[in-house]
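DATA SHEET
Item: assembly model
Revision: 1
Owner: S.N.
Input lines:
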Amino acid sequence: MTLFSERIQNGELGLEKVGETVRLLGWVQRRRDHGGLIFVDLRDRSGIVQVVFDPERMGTEFSIAESLRSEFVVSIQGQVIARPEGMINPNLVTGKIEIVAYSLEVLNGAKTPPYYLVDQVDVDETVRLKYRYLDLRRPEMQNVFKIRHRVTQIMRNFFDSQDFYEIETPMLNKSTPEGARDYLVPSRVHPGEFYALPQSPQLYKQLLMVGGMEKYFQIARCFRDEDLRADRQPEFTQLDVEMSFVEVEDILPMMEKLMVKIFAEAVGKEVSIPFPRLTYKEAMDRYGSDKPDTRFGMELIDVGDLVGKSGFKVFANVVAGGGSVKCICAKGCAGMPRREIDDLAKFVSTYRAKGLAWIVMAEEGIKSPIAKFFTEEEMAALIDLTRAETGDILFFVADTYAVVSDALGHLRLELAKRLGLIEEGSLEFLWVTEFPLLEYDDEQKRHIAIHHPFTAPMDEDLQLLESEPLKVRAKAYDMVLNGTELGGGSIRIHRREVQEQLFKLLGFSEEEAVAQFGFLMEAFEYGTPPHGGIAFGLDRMIMLLTGKDNIRDVIAFPKTQSASDLMAHAPSPVADKQIKELHIRTNIEESVADKK
RNA sequence: GGCCCCGUGGUGUAGUGGUUAACAUGCCUGCCUGUCACGCAGGAGAUCGUCGGUUCAAGUCCGAUCGGGGUCGCCA
């Protein structure tokens, strides 16, 4: 019987092993049958090595080699030899050696896989997801999970070295309003009542601080029943961190050190600290985004003052109405065909911009449908303010501040992508700080928390809480890398009075606040230390570390855009008995459920 | 919920409304002792996602539906 423990990994094989007898275990990547001589590329987690089957060296077992097919699982014993002159394969890490087999055992056969398992897959993702266990065999995928593992190990080591405790919090939680839609779990024991899966361990980690744990972290699964995106799954993983007796300045530098460690040890990239910081206002003003990509310029320029008094009614009216007019200067784009400009106008309309005005700084002079509305002086001032030069295009959006920011912020990113302005491999970290505490929701006709309702206001803005709540800034911060929000957190409220005041501002009655969060507020009365923390999106971090543009590629068993698991076929109907036990009933026709 | 894109042998693609749906690769069989995307010869494999409509005739045009992707809303 095979002793698996004697095995050596393919990737460990090199010239220094020449002459040794080894046992290899793995999958047949490819078989090249020359009749009298058979080559097999043997793949395991560590890599690929070529095995040679020669009838003169192995006798009757040679016929087994003839029967090998792709993805057969085999055990091979053989001798490592240096490849003869001229037969070295430079494309293979192990290309200087090969294994001459003298014994072969098929541990398991395999059906022909639906597609050939190599890195340059060009296969419909549906197929990859249905056969996820095959897709995961591809070296590219193996590498993702190797890095993912390393990152979580680095996190654990880091926090351990800083005296943090890793503590688990419940998956069956109380459903609370605010935030995302909950995934609900019906209770069998309490008819008509439901648990909610955690959107994040927020309340529990704060209560761990009340519980005197002082420093906590968790690599926590979170659930949000919202629509999916390229970087959003219904269940995802957060690195969740909370500390007692800290202020903003304790947390940010520590997290910077963590990033240095992760990038150095997981992918060998250098990260320089401290990270630049931008206030929320500055980020919005300059980049139209609270997660600005600073790998390129093309900042937003406010031209409101200049065009507000001009003869161009569209701009003047927006300014008069309290809106804003801004532009970005696309360097060297004067040659852009009209068709593409129209395309960009369509692009910004996605973000509710009503139009995209433009001024082309052509060699022959200014070309623009709006130029005629400006005097020569106004045009000169505009060019001066925007530093537009011959060869550039200015793109303008006039609307509310929010729409202008959103539209031009995204246009800026789109142009950078089309023009190739972003340098591969560059890492631009930054912190965005001083977020507003609240925003007004027109639909619900009430204030809602931008971060979450437990975020502490900045001390200097406390006195504005009653009079001008929308002007209050929060002790909240986001870490941004290359235009992606990696994580965010805040210093929390730790006094009952302040928390009550906040719930009131959010439109909770006293009864509602107590019903939903009474346990938290009661806890605050028993000596709660000042505390704060942060949470990072692990999946997004792995995306950035591995260069994937799709969250499904960094999750072992991901779900599709409609939240289905194509491999396991979840979700699925369940037996009537199960439904009854849970005291629930669906309003879907029986026949529909049967078909599924 | 809105908008956009995709769906043709196992896989990736081609396919003016008109014969037997083409090509590559994979698969199967045979030959082959230095290949590494091995080679050579032969073979099998598709009712074009599904349903309906227009038409003498639909893979192709129209509608619906299902599945997948991107995105806005939603989501921190």
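QC remark: The CA atoms of residues 201 and 271 of chain A lie 29 Å apart.
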